[in-house]
Amino acid sequence: MTFDYPQTRRDDTVENLHGWEIADPFRWLEDADAPETADWVRRQNDVTDQHLAELADRGWFTKTMAAIVHRPRAGVPQKSGGRYFVSRNDGSQNQDVWYTADSLAELLEGGRVVVDPNTFSADGTDSLSTFTVSDDGRYFAYAVSEGGSDWQTFRLLNLVTGEPVEDASIQTKFSEAGWLPDSSSYVYADFPHSGHAAGTQTDSLGGPKLRWHRVGRDTSRDRVLLEFPENDKLMFFTEVSADHQFLIASIVQGTESRNRVWVYRLGDEDGRSTVSDPIKLIDDPVAEFSFVRSAGSRLYFSTDLGAPRGRIVSVDLDTFTATGALDLVEVVPERAGTLLGAQAVGEALVTVSLQDAQPVLTRYDRSGVELGRLDIPGGALVEINGRPGDPEGFVGMSSVTAPTVAYRFDADTGEVTELPGLVRGDTSTFAPPHLRHERRAATSKDGTEVPYFLIGRADLDRSRPHPTLLYGYGGFKVPVLADYRPGWSGWLAAGGVLAIANLRGGGEFGTSWYEDGRLTHKQNVFDDFIAVAEHLKTSGVTTTEQLALHGRSNGGLLVGATMTQRPDLAAVALPMVGVLDLLRFHRFTIGAARISDYGNPDDPDQFLDAVAYSPLHNVVEGTAYPATLVMTGDHDDRVVPLHSHKFTAALQQAHAGATPVLTRIEVATGHGAGKPTALVVAEWADLLAFAAHHTGLHPSEDASVQA
To answer: pTM of the entire structure?
Structure first.
């Protein structure tokens, strides 16, 4: 079968980079607002839609994904400002609705609606990305994202009256409103910008500022608490201690896994908060520090300083202020598991650690004495909520086929109670298949053992190979677990096998595992992925003709690099919202933040590392590539769609095989967060139908879908 791809204009753009002549014939596709780009997107989608419409099992996957995604669901409760909050979806709504109640019992009975994001836009593409509540329970500050953009706008609601609060319009990203103790002012990250189109190049407007805003005042009067005008790659994350003594600012360069910590003392003057000058507790970013709690003048942090798998330490701020010496006291030492973080609940410290990439929750007292584990099952932690001084906490866990199961726990006693009453509605539209989980490992090129999860229906005949979807990420110290993604249930119900790889560059096995998969070691990640793919084949799980590779964002880079290095490895490649042009990624929107993992292409040595694996620059004319579906959203300002556009154009012109190279470009969606459920259904149905068709997976009509 041959495919009549839309014609893509090539131009003669060539750039000299460090003595290399780099052709960039599709650079014009970087202009997301150009009519020619819009026309190209339309024509590409037309061809893709035609192919997808011809797939025999697309209807089955659409029906199945609708049953999966439209199941009623609920999030994890949290207590803020003396109230309980939780998100719910009755299964028919594009966006989750937020509810509140004065007691947990009332919340379980239903509660009352605080905000319904389904009213934000007619097409359901605007979403609520974060919210915070003032300590007095009066103000509810929520952030609205339009069309999946990282940019968001704060809105205020009076929880007492239920009415909107008139306030200045504040646009930010990667930030929430951090309420100060007076409950009438908050801090936020102010990023300078001249617009937020998905193709916007980074501009030299200076670095972000940490600002202090008082409700009802114009933003021109907002005090600047922290800024680095010369550095536009810094990010600020803040937290107010539960005892209202401190504002802790974590300052991080892009996506580095190490940070500075500056502390501001908070006071009160005539009922209004005061903020001191910063105390630069950690001003040399040599390790990762995450604030856990304060107790008097003592601050507790989780850190990987001197502990690649993490530990908890404390420091006395008064002593530091007097002496300047950072005297860290170890509270919970490094253990065999990888410490992901800790939450202070009541008088306890609840740690979340990974043991062989599976979550374990453990309680400690403030001196580090272990109090016992919380017996909460699940493949991945969704969320943990709680505060010092209140032993009531909440945890959400997910599994491959269950998005969130919420539990209440008592940090003092360790008692755990499941909260099934949070979900309201009929969940029987889809019955997840009974599964068999295994842990296996492959050996990478350099001899490193690379573990992976192998999951399939319990009734599969394991004596023969099956179509298999291999998923990976391998970057930014992000752990990849056996967690929930809507498409997993659809693929498994259809009879496919799922493999989830724990690649270097991730956070499953500590800082050393991460360091071995970034910068000059980035090739290890691709070698690990290839090793898992080969192990799946040599162990009889699947064959080349039945294997599909999938990853999103940094995982999209993973798939792009793997398929260009080993076009013979698999039958299908599914790079989604991927970083695919490693020579220009840092020039657009927040792209420069990824220099931590990819290096800086403006540096001659780091350029050589990047060009060696950049998917766009390793497409070879006349090569038979796997059947490929490149996926992106036209409002993605995290990984701008130009990556997918240019890669698609290059592949289509170079591809010598009979299988298709197509792209699926969603309109009015971004990197993924806040995507309406209707589009989630369509996206997964198309991805799975494409993968199934080109790996030979044919689901039967008996598969778990009820009327």
So the answer is: 0.94
